[in-house]
Design brief:
This protein is of the alpha+beta class. The chain has a single domain, classed as Transposase IS200-like (Alpha-Beta Plaits, 2-Layer Sandwich). It is built from 5 helices and 4 strands, in the order βαββαβααα. It has a 4-stranded antiparallel β-sheet with strand order 2-3-1-4, sandwiched between helices. β2 and β3 form a beta hairpin. The longest helix has 18 residues. The radius of gyration is 15 Å and the shape is globular.
Length: 155
């Protein structure tokens, strides 16, 4: 788009369906690389992709030709297809419905990238549920407990 200039940094978070901790070390790093590639193919500018056993964090500059919901749908659909085609899990793989998306300023990018890249270390101290609820509170997002992710709390 001519004469259109944006810088919209989005932190997208989504979780595995079925309350399972199945994003194992054997394929997790390749999954994150694959999601990075999906973001690039959809004309986003990926900054960091990482996660843990039951969820993913993707941080990217949003291209204004897409909505956040478009990108969440594209990333989740293509990555679950890739997991299933490669038979990384025993049963059919799905992501849970929904996602969290939070925006950050340019000055916050380095801190967000560091936070995302240290997920495994971070989750030795805090569950995904605790982490996600902290995001909702920090961003003053009103929510109904019935519509949150289903959790498995591990430490």
């Amino acid at each position: 788009m001519a004469n259109t200039f944006t810088q919209i940094n989005i932190h997208l978070i989504f979780a595995v369906q079925g309350r399972e901790n199945i994003l194992r070390n054997s394929f997790r790093e390749n999954l994150f690389k694959y999601i990075y590639g999906i973001l690039r193919e959809s004309k986003q500018y990926p900054l960091a992709v990482n996660g843990y056993l039951d969820h993913v964090h993707a941080f990217f500059e949003l291209n204004p030709i897409n909505s956040v919901s478009d990108i969440a749908r594209i990333v989740k659909a293509n990555s679950s297809k890739w997991i299933n085609e490669n038979k990384f899990v025993r049963n059919k793989f799905h992501w849970q419905k929904g996602y969290g998306a939070f925006s950050y300023s340019r000055s916050q990018r380095d801190n967000v990238i560091k936070y995302i890249m240290e997920q495994e270390k971070h989750h030795k101290k805090k569950t995904f549920r605790e982490e996600y609820l902290e995001f909702l509170k920090a961003f003053n997002v009103k929510y109904d407990e019935r519509y949150l992710f289903k959790w498995i709390d591990i430490n």
